[in-house]
Amino acid sequence: FKWEQLVKTGIIELLDAEEEETVMISMTPEDLENSRLQSAGINPHENDGDFDPAARLKAGINAHTWTHCEIHPSMILGVCASIIPFPDHNQ
């Protein structure tokens, strides 16, 4: 797929600050898949050999509440916030 095709078909959508107030964004595709499994009655973490200490902090929200999914968790900050670690690269 090309970027233009993804945007034209509505798979990728740019949200402005006002729209972000009314949407429910899943932070990772894994969270979205786990919500889908939960809504189907399957416990996604039932047979996990590795224990995730952050799992208790994640919300147990059903898949029908998500309207969008973030491409990557760092993208929620935008370009301006993403370049903060490099303040002197503009010289």
UniProtKB/TrEMBL annotation:
Keyword annotations: DNA-directed RNA polymerase, Nucleotidyltransferase, Transcription, Transferase
Class of the enzyme per the UniProt entry, highest EC level: transferase
Domain called RNA polymerase Rpb2: residue spans: 3-73
Keyword Cytoplasm: no
InterPro entries: DNA-dir_RNA_pol_su2, RNA_pol_Rpb2_5
Listed GO CC annotations: DNA-directed RNA polymerase complex
Any one Gene Ontology BP term: DNA-templated transcription
A matching Pfam family: RNA_pol_Rpb2_5
An example Gene Ontology molecular-function term: ribonucleoside binding
E.C. number(s) listed in UniProt: 2.7.7.6
Protein family (similarity comment): Belongs to the RNA polymerase beta chain family.
UniProt name for this protein: DNA-directed RNA polymerase
Organism: Indoporus shoreae
Phylogenetic classification of the source organism: Eukaryota, Fungi, Dikarya, Basidiomycota, Agaricomycotina
Gene it is expressed from: rpb2
